[in-house]
Design brief:
- The protein has 297 residues and is of the alpha/beta class.
- It has two domains: 202 residues, Vaccinia Virus protein VP39 (Rossmann fold, 3-Layer(aba) Sandwich), CATH 3.40.50.150; 77 residues, rRNA adenine dimethylase, C-terminal domain (Helicase, Ruva Protein, domain 3, Orthogonal Bundle), CATH 1.10.8.
- The chain is 35% helix and 15% strand.
């Protein structure tokens, strides 16, 4: 914990009649070493999208390393303070007052005239935004090259899990990218102090992946098939796959054959399968099950 940083944050808030708001999940990082670790891998060629900059502690470090920082903040009071403390001294920072779940990064917002803006995400995420933000950007038409995020420790561990501790969340992230825990951060390195410890997680090698299936062309439909099968498999975590997959309207005999052909034991539980296993199952769904039928359930 950096006491000077904590004192400075409190001073700025007090002088401007502001305070951290629980509704926005505001817990400011007050450890300079962790702030610097968050910016590792950022270079002068990078456009960085920062979510929830707050008072701009991380924003300042990013602006020193990046070509441009687009800081999206929902709290109008924080936007006002950023206009006073960041905008005058850091011309490569663009402050946007918006809800990140409604924001779309574009060539114009990134100061580029070219299509398909390449960017990274770096953020100390409010806890309530963790899953929506990760899902939104992994599934985006123009996803970031990577995401470096501060999230709850337990959630980070679930995202990076391997068999036999897989979950729907782990499969959802690992289907698109490679997540890795960089380090853990104890809760006393934030102010106000949250109730749980956190972790820095990096999600890299992000790609718009498709599950190729005969006769289907739309990637969204193909991805829907993958997630439909995964959701069915995890519908009752303690039950065996041969029972859970009945939700796909396939007979027990067909399910057993389907699993065995793919070298998966019918008695296995969903948490023991890899992402590759689920992709293989999605490719080889019994012929009579159409994507439209799956989506209608």
């Amino acid at each position: 914990m950096d006491l000077d940083l904590k004192t400075e944050i409190k001073r700025i808030l007090q002088e401007n009649a502001a305070r951290p708001l629980k509704i926005f999940g505001q817990n400011f990082l007050i450890n300079q070493k962790m702030i610097e670790k968050m910016t590792e891998g950022v270079s002068k060629k990078d456009v960085v999208l920062e979510i929830g900059p707050g008072l701009g502690v991380l924003t300042k470090e990013l602006s020193k390393k990046a070509k441009m920082v687009i800081a999206v903040e929902k709290d109008r009071k924080m936007v006002e303070l950023l206009g006073k403390t960041i905008a005058p001294e850091y011309p490569n920072v663009k402050i946007v007052n918006d809800d990140i779940l409604k924001f779309q990064i574009s060539p114009a917002s990134a100061g580029s005239r070219r299509g398909g803006t390449t960017y990274k995400i770096v953020a100390n995420l409010p806890f309530y935004l963790t899953s929506p933000v990760i899902r939104m950007f992994l599934e985006a038409e123009n996803p970031p090259t990577d995401m470096t995020l501060i999230i709850q420790k337990e959630v980070a561990q679930r995202i990076c899990a391997k068999p036999p501790k897989m979950s729907i969340l782990a499969n959802s992230v690992q289907f698109y990218a490679e997540p890795k825990i960089i380090c853990y951060i104890s809760k006393d390195n934030f102010w106000p102090e949250p109730k749980v410890d956190c972790a820095i997680i990096k999600i890299s090698n992000i790609e718009r992946k498709q599950v190729p299936t005969a006769g289907e062309k739309k990637s969204k439909t193909l991805n829907d098939m993958f997630f439909r099968v995964v959701k069915a498999g995890f519908s009752h975590p303690r039950k065996q796959l041969i029972n859970n997959l009945r939700q796909l309207s396939i007979s027990r005999e067909e399910i057993e054959k389907w699993l065995l052909i793919n070298e998966i034991k019918p008695t296995q539980r969903a948490e023991t399968l890899t992402v590759k296993d689920w992709i293989t199952l999605s490719k080889s769904l019994p012929h009579r099950i159409s994507v439209n039928q799956l989506n209608s359930k």
